[in-house]
């Protein structure tokens, strides 16, 4: 299964908040348009390759995407959890 499909729009927003990144910053690092990231964060259907690029950037910065007690969240580099 392609794990990039397991990341939700809420997790992307939470991940950006944990890292203090703007949409422009994350989109630039992932090599995608800011509009594409905006669409991801608002639940639009996007290319798996773009979602994988965003996930790759966030994981490279030490984030872990988790599901705990049925709720999707993001575990930060210092153990902070956002849901």
Task: Please write out the topology.
Blueprint: H1 9-19, H2 23-30, H3 34-41, H4 48-60, E1 64-68, E2 71-75, E3 81-82
Antiparallel strand pairs: 1-2, 2-3
Q: Can you offer a commentary on this structure?
A:
- With 83 residues, the protein is α+β, with helices and mostly antiparallel strands.
- It contains four helices and three strands; from the N terminus they run ααααβββ.
- It has helices at residues 9-19, 23-30, 34-41, 48-60, and strands spanning 64-68, 71-75, 81-82.
- The chain has a three-stranded antiparallel β-sheet with strand order 1-2-3, with helices on one face.
- The mean pLDDT is 87.
What is Rg?
A: 12 Å
The CATH homologous superfamily is termed lambda repressor-like DNA-binding domains
SSE string? HHHHEEE
- The CATH class label is Mainly Alpha
Shape: globular
Short précis:
The protein has four helices and three strands.
List keywords for this structure.
4 helices, 83 residues, 48% helix, three-stranded antiparallel β-sheet, alpha+beta, 434 Repressor (Amino-terminal Domain)
